[in-house]
Design brief:
It contains seven helices and four strands. It is of the alpha+beta class. The protein folds into two domains: 78 residues, Glutaredoxin, CATH 3.40.30.10; 104 residues, Glutathione S-transferase Yfyf (Class Pi), Chain A, domain 2. The chain has a four-stranded mixed β-sheet with strand order 2-1-3-4, covered by helices on one side. The longest helix is centred in the middle third of the chain and has 30 residues. It is globular. The two termini are 31 Å apart. 33% of the residues are buried. Bound molecules: glutathione.
Length: 204
Amino acid sequence: MIKLFEYSKSRSVRIHWLLKELGAEFESVSIDLRKGEQFSPEYKKIHPLGKVPAIQDGDLTLFESAAICNYLCESYFEKGLIPDPATTERALYDQWLSFTLTEVDAKLWAAEGHLWRYPAESRSPLSLAVLEKELVEALAVIEKELLKKNCIVSSRFYGVDVMLTQTLLWAKARGHCEGFTNINSYIERNVNRPAFPKEFYENQ
Ligand SMILES: N[C@@H](CCC(=O)N[C@@H](CS)C(=O)NCC(=O)O)C(=O)O
């Protein structure tokens, strides 16, 4: 059975949600980031930087949420959560997956650096302002795209929509989604899917 190493409302929600969308059986292994369990020598054999998510499936140990997402979608190809390779739909899936990670996730993570993650002397209000401007520009691209269709690739919901929705929930929690009507409707539609793990977003 697939083992998912996860922690509460972190990027591991992407994989928890996806496994539920796929109807896959899995065992959840909690790695308490607040207690520093990610840095145990045992866990660092699974993820060398001590991060979640990671999975184990038989002999395979895999980290990086996008890689895990595509591995799982391809392993359960019949569920239709990833398009056929070398098709227009698949090319666009890959495009939006990269966009999610490099233009939205990476900017959010870097912005958090300047808000609280970096030591106080390394934080820069100017760098933060640039990152937030770039983030809003990226969100505006997504907003425009969602005017044309219900999901980010087409009318079909794919693994990339799980990745993007969780990332947009993070952006929204940081106050970046105000005024983006299509993004807010997209989030609302997707968090109302039966497989969405609401429990991670309650009482927060
Ligand atoms: N690019 C990685 C990022 C993973 C990541 O940074 N995870 C965070 C939680 S959202 C983490 O485990 N941080 C460990 C820590 O803060 O020590 C992915 O998408 O899987």
